[in-house]
Every structure is written in structure tokens, then in C-alpha cells.
Amino acid sequence: MRLLKKLTETDAPSGRERGIRDIIKSEAAALGYEITEDALGSVIAHRPGAGKRLMLDAHMDEVGVIATYIDDNGFIRFGAVGGLYIKELHKRRVRFANGTVGVIGAEDKSFDKKAEISKLYIDIGAKNKKEAEKHVKPGDTAVFDGGFVKRGNTIISKALDNRAGCYILLKAMEQIKDSENDLYFVFSAQEEVGLRGAKTAAYGIMPDYAIAIDVTDTGDTPSCELMDVKLGRGAAIKVMDNSVMCDINVVNALRKAAEAGKIPYQTDILADGGTDAGAIALTGGGVRAGGISLPVRYIHSPSELADAGDIKACIKLVCAACEHKWQ
Predict the structure, then answer these.
(1) Confidence of residue 269 (pLDDT cuts 50, 70, 90)
(2) What is the span of the domain harbouring residue 215?
(3) Do 277 and 181 have their domain in common?
(4) Residue-wise over 103-138: b if at least 16 C-beta within 10 A, else e?
(5) How far, in Å, CA of 96 to CA of 11, rounded?
(6) Which residues does the annotation mark as catalytic?
């Protein structure tokens, strides 16, 4: 899991993916894949084949914040980069690209009554605006400050959404044995701000089939919204989310591959949230798209929690999908 630790600890909010992109390009090139990069910064690793053109996608970026204004007392106002749970931001730590760490504070009374991002600020301990500007300027981005922890099969870290997906693709690229398919592994940019990189990458590839690898919520914590996905029960085969109704041929092919390979799997029907599968499906004249999801608790927080066994199941299922004879 050293590679997963390295991926999660690399800061890369949407539109600022350079650090993670360089790592992924290096890892993919070492496996012998043909590497290209498109204008939005998505990395595409190609393994040529005579069969169907199959696109496997995992986004590189993570949620974060962007500094918008610094007041005279050195407090930094900010906007969201991707979907943030505003009520949960108070007193969390964030880290800017230069290493500056700050704490998100709130205008307590008004924030308690109505949670709005305009009532939050970042405190880096500066005495005034001039001192704050030595460390942070408007336009600078920051991500959650949350380290990588592994205990048994339990993994806790920031950015498992979706560095775990990137890890799954890289490990599958290493483990694939025989595949006649024309394989395109896409590590897409800017998913958290509108599924952008996957759409442009898919347009350049125009695959016959596509599978997005991402995380999904679980329904196994106290008083949570009920859903079928649970931690430790294997890979989740996506049926739908807010962005896509998955192609039934892709869903059935993934189920068949999982059963043939005795890979534990469950069903992902995500009521809230979307994935790159939605953007890919609507590219060009349309693409038959589906998804493989990793169950993760506490998504879009500094402490996302996953199961190592589920990650292994996802890797096996991606390999099986790549080796499947697509019609």
C-alpha cells in the first residue's frame, strides 16, 4: 500500500493536478504503456489491441478550497473547489500548496443558525493582512490536511476519493495478463468540478465501452441513509447515480466477470452524487458506460475510510473487465 499512501499524500485539488499527474505518468510509463496528456491535463495510458476499444477512467483530483480575499486582520475568506459539506468544515485543517496550514473558523452565532461558506474563514495565525499575504494570496488552493493510516484492512486518509481509484487502475495495469481489447486507462482531471477531464478524454478516444472507477457511499453506519453497499463486501458494480443510468450490457458483463472470477461484489445505486461515467456516456454519439465503485465512509472529508479487501476486489474486477471479450 506504499503507492496508495504516496498518491493520497500528494495534494492535487481540481485544476492543480500537476504533482499527482507526474507520479501517475512515471508509474504508468514504468509498466510499458504509451503515455499521452491532453489539454486539460488528463493522463492517458494506452495498451493497443485488436478488440473493442475499452476506456477505464479514474479521476486524479480531490476537493479543496480556494482563497478569495484576505481581510485586514489576516483572516482568509475562501470558496469551494468541488462539493464540500459546509456544516462539517468548522475547525478542520487545510494545507496550501506551499505547505502553509490553516484552521477553518466560523462566525459562530450566525453560522450556527445558517451554515454558509461566506461565514467561514481560514486562520493561519497571521497578525494582519500583510503577514498573511507572505504565505497565501487570493487564487491559492488548499486541500484537507489528513494523513494516511493503515491498521489491518482498515485504511483512513484524505483523498481516497479518488486516489484509491487511481491506485486500482495502476495495479490492474500491472496485473493484466491476456487481453485482446484496445485498452485506454485514463486518469482524468477536474472531476470534482463537473466531470470535465473525462469528457474531453472520452471525446479523443471515442471508446466502444467505458468503465469509471470511483468511490461510493456506504449504508452501514448508525442512522445513515439506507443503501445496499457495505464496507468489506467487495467491489460495488454501479447501476446508477445522479449522473448516469449505466448501460445494462456493461452491468451484466461486470457481474458475469465477477462471478466467473469468484470476485466478491455488491450493487451500487447512489442516490446523491455523480461520477465520470455520466460525462463519458454523453460524449459524441454516446458511449456504453458503467462503473466499478470502492465503498468509502466519510467521503469528502480528511478521514475517508476504506477496506483493503474491497480495494483488492476492485483491482481483480478491473483486470477481469479488461480481459473480458466485449461484443
Answers:
(1) very high
(2) 2-62+158-323
(3) yes
(4) ebbbeeeebeeebebebbbbebebeeeeebeebbee
(5) 9
(6) 191
- What the block records as the C-alpha cell of 33 is 504503456
User: Which CATH number belongs to the domain containing residue 225 in this structure?
Assistant: 3.40.630.10
In Å, what is the CA distance from 151 to each residue of 1, 242, 265, 301? 12, 33, 23, 19
**pLDDT tens-digit readout, 31-70:** 999 999 999 999 999 999 999 999 999 999 999 999 999 9
Q: Are 135 and 125 in contact (CB under 8 A)?
A: no
> Position of cell 485506454?
184
Q: How confident is the model at residue 109 (pLDDT cuts 50, 70, 90)?
A: confident
Q: Tally the domains of the chain.
A: 2
Quote the pTM value.
Answer: 0.96
In-domain check, residue 153: no
Q: What is the CATH number of the domain that holds 123?
A: 2.40.30.40
What Cα–Cα distance (Å) separates residue 223 from each residue in 220, 226, 229, 272, 307? 9, 8, 15, 17, 21
